[in-house]
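Morning F.,

Quick status update on the modeling queue. The single chain you submitted on Monday has been processed. Sequence for confirmation:
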Amino acid sequence: MIVAHDGDEALALFDSARPPLVLLDVLMPGRSGWEVCRLMRQHPAHGRTVRIIMLTALSEWNDKQSAIQTGADDYITKPIDLADLELRVRRNLALVNPPA
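Structure tokens below.
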């Protein structure tokens, strides 16, 4: 697991580590999660294959719709249910690496 503390660090780590899945907070220092998600999706080599799960305290329908339109694959509201988080991470990773 790799942890970034702000949007710019997240983008730099994304470019170097190329993770299969990103858990991305919407409200973070520097760039917003919306902007980071959009920029990750625009990455020429990795933007189309990475799975992005947005995590946020924002729970309105339009927030979820914005996340999906920005390029997120999934959206989880806080407080986070760890069992639900695990299920969604497993489900999204299975889409990156389908079982043989």
